[in-house]
Amino acid sequence: MAVKQMRQQRRKEFVMLLRQPGLFACIVVILAILVLFCIFPVLRLLWTTITNQEGHLDLSNVEHIMNSTNFFTSLGNSLMLGLTVAVISTIIGYVFAYAVTRTNMPGKRFFHFMAMLPILSPPFVISLAMILLFGRSGVITKTLLHIRNHNVYGFGSLMIVQTLALFPLAYLNLKGMLESIDGSVEDASRSLGASRVKVFTSVTLPLSIPGVFSALLIVFAKSISDFGNPQVLAGNFSVLSVDAYMQITGLYDLKTGAFMALSILLPAMLAFFIQKYWVARKSFVTITGKPVGNIQRIRDRHIVVPLFIFCLLITVIVIMLYGTVVWISLVKTWGVDMSLSFKNYEFVFKRGMSAMQDTLLLALIATPITAVLGLVISFLLVRKRFFGKKLMEIASMIPFAVPGIALGIGYILSFNTPPVLLTGTAAIIVAALVFRTLSVGVEAGSNSLRAVDASIEEASTILGANNLTTFTRISLPLMRSALFSGLLNAFVRSMTSVSAVIFLVSVNWNLLTVSIMSEIEGSRLGVASAYCVVLMVIVVIALLILEVAVNGEGSRRKRK
Amino acid sequence: MKRVFAILLALCMLLSLPVLASAEQVKSISIYTCYVENEALQMFEQFTKDTGIKVNYVRLGAGEIVTRLEAEAQNPQASIFMGGSVDTHTSAMNKGLLDHYVSPKLEVVDERWKDPNEVWTPVSMIVTAFASNTDYLKEKGIPAPTSWAELINPDLKGDVCMAHPGTSGAAYTAFSGMLQTFGVEEGFEYMKKLDANIAQYTKAGAAPYRMAGLGEIGIAIGYDLDAQATILEGYPLVITYPSEGTGYEVTCVSMVKGGPANEVEAAHAFIDWMLSDTCQKMATEQFYRYPISKTVELNPAMIPMDQLNLIDYDFIWSGDNKVALVERFEREVRTRDNVLK
Question: With a cut of 0.90, is the ipTM above it?
Fold first, then answer.
């Protein structure tokens, strides 16, 4: 009986969908794109790992891996690192987001900017700064504190660096979430006599649960698939992404290595389903279209001061690490000849120009595509019911959770021969950049949409607007913060991703991060740092333009 | 809101124009190289000056290049695989990724360095070396180590560094050379003792020298030319060679099988050029390579090979056993203490 009802329900939905050909076409096209660029390459790679030369099923590789103890040690290490980093990053991100959105803490704009700084550069640069500051000959450990033989390599440092590199993701996500919670709910609770603590624990926190979970998920997935930082800083602490990389490029064993890399998908997917299960059961609607007053910002000193100190502390660490990168780029030879010089920048502007142009161009193409696609997908996922919804949800997550090297190789295997021949072109890099960051935009968009009552959009539809108008005039403006973080993230990730594109850069299209990696391998830290600084400056300029364009536009509209 | 989108959209359409209209007219070749960026750039500039052929390149690690060639095998994107040791080229050849080419310029090369299969072309030689930080040596009050035996002194715990023999050609040459000097069983026993002193196995072969230069560690193991490059950057290192026997590698360049058809001629010209006096001289004088050509003199700042205790490095054995040796290294050496402390 129940089955029959469900079937009828399904059919009704399908018929409804067919009556909206625009929407229907949109869903079909997006599904097709996602299957082609997110699922197919990964499946193609998986197929390669479990077949032999003749194309028959051959599980000897899998057996080989399962029998090696290293695999499980590394898997355990990766999971532990991922969980720790996810929890700490989310806490830091939450504190920052809360302080920025809910209090009248001084210097909010500054803290907002500083919280985003760490995503503005390729992650392994922070690792390098960490070694130069806290390593054996570190400026702080040796010169200032006179600690001898301080071992910077291993779990602890790795955790710190990953946390610093990834908490901005949590911050952006949670900030969008907190902004989209209608403040009047909190004010009402306060007027009814609840203490600040009570308001936080029983109103703000529960309402921001979707954001917390998606922050945890994003950071966890990013941490376990990260390759750049562990490769520089892990020491004897082995993690799966590095092991997979070694297996592929060191032992020329594509099959075993790719399988190891793909196995990282499992825990990430598990986390993904847990998150969906939790979040889907509850309603988090607070923006209902009914008139709201202005939110009351917290002024109490005993709340603001500790928050301020906490944010300041994190900011100081961030500034210290980035300051070091700038410093390295400005001295002749770090540790030997510390006199100031611009020779690194001369080299960068002489040799690195074409890579710089390529990087900027590809990022500029990838950014709007990623952001818009992310928002459209989140809109469909949260607001519409259609077949293949689960597929869409999972597909948009996969390229994010899989280690970059697996995605890169999957892309080569899939798009190196007709019908879809993309290797050597800019399109394959753009595609990798778009789909690798897509999920962040989807998450941010979904979170802010969940806080908006669907009846506002329904009202618009009832008043005669079509799907497109409703989306652009109602939903999109309400998702402004998500759009901003989507655009920003897409741009930054496009400018700074390494492991996914290292196999996709071609003789015609090279990227700055690959040059940075080369220079680090060639031990020219000054040049590598100068590249990073240039990269960061470009990203910061883009960030400021975005702020003005997206947020400025919005506040002007509000004033009207 | 709308305006922002319109601008963004217009911008990305405008920017994609040159992407669509990039038809190459000039004669050019595509190269995957694992030479250090700086060296590769200067070599290519000279080549273009000499021949008028434009070089487009991607710099990757040697292992990354093999992986890429393998993934692209259905439709190769590059004509030349430049750099990397004999064993790297041998394994790429065994995977059917490389093509035959016998350069007419090969006469300048000694018979013993030529590829019996006529696939790869040897272009230079590099020797395994230690490099020690001079400040570190002063502090410890020890001379620069001149033997493998000195490196397992328990006093040096955590002060020695080499790359992972799986990911770095430099580290594999050192590792394989050491095994060939001591014998495999004894070599592994040695390696376990050395492991106690190793701070970290890095990914890239040059990284240990950077760490030694910065004082992160005391002594680094790798290729002499990377150590020289680090010294040229200004770092206080002193180079020594293991007296029990020093391994070495022959750097190769090969044609990629099925690479772009319109580049074949230019690619052959490039391989020939790499054996020319201009290139060989440049390689030794600026980048401290041992020239493979008999007609070019060694950089006077380098120690002649006959003064080093070079072993009779067995490339075939080294290449054939790479996977087995590295797996054994992973199992018996690296992962012994590879648990969270």
Answer: no
